[in-house]
Amino acid sequence: MIDNIKDFIDSIKHNPRIVTFDEAATKQAIILPILQCLGWNTHNIEEVMPESPVENRRVDYSLHAGSRLVLVEVKKTGEDIEKFEKQLLEYSFLRGSEFSILTNGVIWCFYLPMKRGVWENRKFESIDLIHQDSLYASQRLADLLSKSDLQNGNSSKKAEDIYRKKIILESLPIVWNNMIKLPSTKFNELISEMTELACGYRAENFEISDFLSTHEEQLLVRPNEQKQLRKRRKRESSGPSAPIMVAVNIPCVLDGIAGEYLKQSKQSAKSSADLAVYFHPEYLLEMTVRKTNSSNVDQIEFIATSKQFVYAFEAYCKIKKLKNPYKNAYIFGTRVNKELNMLSENHWTIMSKSNIAPYFKRLRGEAYWKFVKTK
């Protein structure tokens, strides 16, 4: 099972079209194949019910493994799924689901809807199929969503354990701060005993209170700082750290991405003596290098939609710890027009088949850009 999921995730990472998928394509090309890899019979509506009714509304899928019910709400790739958490919560309450999933195909967020507290705190796991290690993502999906583990209750135990660790980690700073600000008799007694062991004298309550008040700022744990520290440690252990403010422009990013591509192996099926095609799993674009009339000169070409360039730019800036200004296709298209002189100065040319439109061509409503550089 794990090998099949891993192979499928690897195929997603090497699919440059993934960032253009709408919701229907996301379901067909990503969600259903992954469910099949996890042991679900997607042709049996007793197991995998599409458009499952929730009173007068519908959730994309309800998964049934014995008496256990899992709701899966799907959005298109690239969609910010956090804004749909409340919607999934309502579905889960109405259907009595103790385990729910919100996904855009790439990001899979797992929730325990019946837990206490605000909705955001009920998310106990998030899996990123593109940026996380494929084997890790495969194992995590199998642990939490395989039909067999859900049926025998193993998934619920693992989910509960992950949630427990998360809640304890978030609660400890609060408990500690309360102990510092309002120390209990047991707390004072422990400090007094430890002081006696250290120097032979027991500390009185007023002495302990004075000490805690004097050093309160150093002793208190700031929850926000703790969250930032955990996020930083997580980034340091798994990938790039927080973005920093550095001037970013399209030719700068194109040059950087091209450099990363040239470190990759050529795609032999598409390469020849005069043409080499490169692919990079982080950026999901194809780059073509052609020999021009002069054998000593290479021409670099990128052809992709605005959405694909936006995804690649976001990945590049994340890896290089830069602040990405190209957040969506509209902004990207607008910035292209503003940076024409900058592109030209850096020897990048925008190719177009039209005298009117700046982009290369339009296909099925998507604008395709062609950036060419001769070096």
Any key phrases for this structure?
single chain, 375 residues, alpha+beta, tt1808, chain A, 12 strands
Question: Would you mind describing this structure in some detail?
Answer:
The strands form 2 sheets. The protein has a 6-stranded mixed beta sheet, with helices on both faces. Helix 1 runs antiparallel to helix 2 and helix 11 crosses helix 12 (306-319). The chain has helices at 2-13, 23-37, 85-95, 134-145, 147-151, 154-181, 185-199, 205-214, 216-219, 223-238, 250-261, 306-319, 329-338, 340-345; strands at 48-54, 57-65, 68-74, 99-103, 107-111, 123-128, 275-279, 286-291, 298-305, 348-351, 361-363, 366-374. It contains 14 helices and 12 strands. With 375 residues, it is an alpha+beta fold. Mean pLDDT is 84; it is low at 233-246.
List the helices and strands and how they pair.
Elements (H helix, E strand, L loop, with lengths): L1 H12 L9 H15 L10 E7 L2 E9 L2 E7 L10 H11 L3 E5 L3 E5 L11 E6 L5 H12 L1 H5 L2 H28 L3 H15 L5 H10 L1 H4 L3 H16 L11 H12 L13 E5 L6 E6 L6 E8 H14 L9 H10 L1 H6 L2 E4 L9 E3 L2 E9 L1
Parallel strand pairs: 3-4
Antiparallel strand pairs: 1-2, 2-3, 4-5, 5-6, 7-8, 8-9, 9-12, 10-12, 11-12
Helix pairs in contact: 1-2, 1-4, 11-12, 12-13
